[in-house]
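Exercise 7.
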Amino acid sequence: MKSILGASLLAGLLAFAAGCSSADAGRVGAEPNGESPSQDDGSLGTPAPATEETTSSLAQSLREGDSSEDAASNPCAATTCLVGSTCEVVDGRATCTPNASAGAPFCGGFAGVACPGAGSCVDDPSDDCDPERGGADCGGLCECNVRALCIQGFAFDESPEVCACVPSEPEPDACAAVRCRAGTHCEAEGDRARCVPDAAAGPFCGGFAGIACPGAGSCVDDPNDGCDPARGGADCGGVCECSAAAASCPEGVPFDDSPDVCACVEPVNPCAAVLCPVNTTCDVVDGEARCNPIAPSGPFCGGIAAFECPGAGSCVDNPNDGCDPDRGGADCGGVCECNIRALCIPGLAFDASPEVCACVPTEPEVDACATVRCRAGTHCEVVDDRAICASDELTNPCAAASCLTGTVCVERRGQAVCIPADSEVCE
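Solution. The predicted structure, written as tokens, is:
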């Protein structure tokens, strides 16, 4: 309808323009002869053809009028949307909606199809089903809106078809097929490999200050410093090297051949500075201190037969049997421990060994002389749990007595008695 009205208007305007041009031409042609025109003033006469200029002006005016009318009826005419979106008129307003994702996997729908990986299912704007307007079981498209951190050797693929961490392709190693001579190593620069001298490993030595090497180390020229003493280099610096061939250490003392030491060093026990938890012991493994569980020594307990421990002992898991009840191990065996200290009645003593863990009768001390009879003049004595017969010690009371001159000491009934020397001694 709009195009028909425009065409009619254009035809009318062209006819009117042609009539005006014809009337003006008749008046101009009559004035030189002094004759009045044969037509009335109000007559238009025969229409003349429209000129090209007039037609262009009218067409331009019509286009501008049509554009104004389009903007008024279509809000999207004056709207510019971003790339990947399209302008749509929603409730009389221009709205930019994203284009349907090309190649995105289908999701949702009646079957509730899930998206791959960590992808999320969004509504498909290109279909006729809108879940926000009562659409049930609408299908959608998968999007990947996450940026996951992957472990080493994996990279995140953010395409809607994957949206997950996938193994990363290893970069080609240019040095894989290169073998450098001694004292050099291969370095890759882009896709090219080259052999470069090894960096000096020992400490600095020599130079202007004549720095010496530690221990028995020797100073050699550094091939990477650009100073060569064999070619006139003065006060060149060097690096320390250590040769264990010239080392002579006492027995049991190792030699440290690192360039930073190069000397005999006393062995250091790494466990000396380590405090291990209870029921563990420190062991040196490859020069390092490690706390390892103490091998249990108690009797077996638990298991499928549920063996009990003797006395008041408790059954604990055996850390060396490979069965852990805390991690689903069923009917694990264990070992008995005695972790109590009981107070026993007189005549009993507590035996804390895992095999007993109870109060037991105390054993009386054995008298080694109980079954020994010694001969006259000797008696039994216990020496180092053994019975021996020792000679009796004879005591002489006169040994400590001092008698007057002319008297002598005699023993009477175990006592010292001084009597005259000429008296008869009676026992």
